[in-house]
Design a protein that fits this description.
The chain is an alpha+beta fold. Among the domains are: 122 residues, Helix Hairpins (Orthogonal Bundle), CATH 1.10.287; 155 residues, Histidine kinase-like ATPase, C-terminal domain (Heat Shock Protein 90, 2-Layer Sandwich). The strands form 4 sheets. The chain has a 5-stranded antiparallel β-sheet. The chain is rod-shaped and about 170 Å long. The chain starts with a strand and ends with a helix.
């Protein structure tokens, strides 16, 4: 039990709050279906309640004002009858006395009556003129000037008070006695009405809040099968597509139909996945077997070709050229077979990585010297630090750099240098290989690391590429725990970036 001040939070209260707060927290996301359903239904209900409250308030106001207006109209109509009645009851009463008695009889705490002659002089007024309600006015003449336009009952707001007033000629036996004014103070009734409206608004607000909470909980409960379905699908892996099933209990028919359709899709995906896996496995096995079987005879052929070249002093120029072409093609084919074997081993998980601490600058310097020697191209080496330790496989790292530099040389002008830049971050080393070639179109940049994908078929044939170099770069880099990316603009060249982890000893 947790105590906050004098209020104690029991486990049951905490459990209830969790059940209520969870739907509320999930309903806050504007993109969720729960939020949209809750907001739309709650908005419609709120609109309905507000509309009814406003109409009810308006109607009550009309009824209240109408009742006050009818009351002063009835008083004005009965004054003349009361004057005649008093004259008949006692002949000693003069007309003015009869009018005064009639006015006193019909007046009240909030109702004031008076009669003015044709010159505007007050000839009779009720006795409650000195009451607190009417003391703010100096005389009935002041009231007459305020209410002089009220031939029909009209509502006035004077000095923070609300009045209903009217006036009409006072005729007794067809003899005009003056003008009768009737005024009623309705301020208290108006205040009570406003208080009622405020109470109604508060009750409506509380009702809207409670309805929204109830809706959030109900929508959350109704969408639980969908949430459960989402959790189940997250746990499905490619290996158990045929075994997993989405099973929902007490779910609406639409969601149950969706679950059944999803199960059918899982069956189809499982069959397609098994077929694809078997096909891929056969292809990998075929490539591995063919590469392994062809590499040995091709190596022997290359050896004989090189031996003939070394001893062929009596060869013609045409024969020597044919031997050189044959030897170059044999080297290219052997390199292709080696790349295919490397990819096959990586796919099967048999690619060994001897990860150790290396000085990236030394590996890069060796690659630059090899590239300049065999390609006769200028390769600029830039480094932000003299010694950058990386945790990588020496052979794989060298092959990654060789492939990137060869790729930059193939797809750039012979007069433009290739730049290899080294950079060290906090926990990683960056290798940037840049060229000033034609660049790579944006729509093709996401595919250049695919196997056998070539950007320019004609140029790739002329340079001898088959589309495996960058695929090997990606495979070896990721195998050493790194990443590779490309940044390129057409006409501006390309920059390939390899990020590798630095040596664990360098982090200490």
């Amino acid at each position: 039990m947790v105590s906050v001040g004098e209020f104690q939070i029991t486990p049951s209260i905490r459990k209830l709050w969790r059940h209520v707060s969870l739907p509320l927290r999930q309903s806050v996301d504007p993109r969720s279906l729960q939020f949209r359903l809750t907001a739309s239904i709650a908005g419609l209900i709120a609109f309905g309640l507000v509309s009814v409250a406003l109409w009810t308030s308006w109607k009550m106001q009309r009824i209240l004002i109408s009742s006050h207006k009818q009351k002063i109209v009835d008083i004005a109509e009965r004054i003349a009858d009361d004057v005649v009645l008093y004259r008949q009851m006692d002949d000693m009463f003069t007309v003015q006395e009869s009018v005064q008695k009639a006015i006193d009889n019909r007046s009240g705490r909030n109702v004031l009556l008076w009669v003015s002659d044709s010159q505007g002089n007050v000839v009779a007024t009720s006795a409650n003129l000195s009451g607190p309600t009417w003391q703010r006015f100096n005389s009935p003449s002041t009231l007459a000037s305020v209410f002089q336009d009220s031939i029909v009952p009209t509502v006035y707001h004077v000095q923070d008070r609300d009045f209903v007033a009217c006036h009409s000629p006072l005729l007794v036996s067809n003899q005009p006695l003056g003008t009768l004014f009737v005024a009623q103070d309705i301020t208290e009734d108006q205040r009570k009405f406003i208080a009622s409206v405020q109470s109604l608004a508060l009750a409506s607000s509380v009702a809207i809040v409670l309805i929204t909470l109830a809706l959030a909980w109900y929508v959350h409960w109704s969408l639980r099968p969908l949430c459960h379905m989402g959790l189940m699908t997250k746990a499905i892996s490619p290996d158990d597509l045929g075994e997993k099933r989405v099973e929902l209990q007490n779910a609406p028919s639409e969601i149950q139909e969706l679950a059944n359709t999803f199960n059918l899709m899982l069956d189809r995906l499982s069959k397609a996945w098994q077929e694809q896996r078997h096909t891929t496995e056969r292809q990998r096995q075929f490539v591995s077997n063919v590469s392994h079987e062809l590499r040995t005879p091709l190596t022997i052929v290359r050896g004989y070709l090189q031996s003939i070249q070394r001893r062929g002093d009596n060869l013609t120029d045409m024969q020597r050229e044919a031997l050189e072409i044959s030897s170059a093609e044999a080297d290219l084919t052997i390199r292709l077979l080696q790349d295919l074997l490397s990819l096959a081993r990586a796919d099967d998980g048999y690619m060994p990585y001897n990860l150790e601490t290396l000085i990236l600058n030394d590996v890069a310097t060796e690659v630059v010297m090899m590239a300049e020697k065999f390609n006769h191209r200028q390769v600029l080496l830039e480094s932000e630090a003299p010694l950058i330790p990386v945790f990588a496989d020496a052979d794989r790292l060298q092959q990654v750099l060789v492939n990137l530099v060869d790729n930059a040389i193939k797809y750039s002008n012979a007069t433009e240098p290739v730049t290899l830049k080294l950079e060290q971050r906090q926990e990683s080393a960056l290798i940037h290989v840049s060229d000033r070639g034609d660049g790579i179109p944006l729509q093709q940049q996401s595919r250049i690391f695919e196997r056998f994908y070539r950007l320019d078929e004609a140029r790739a044939r002329s340079t001898g590429g088959v589309g495996l170099g960058l695929s090997l770069v990606k495979t070896f880099t990721e195998g050493m725990g790194g990443q590779v990316s490309v940044l390129s603009e057409e006409g501006e060249g390309s920059t390939f970036t390899v990020m590798l982890p630095i040596s664990p000893e360098a982090k200490i």
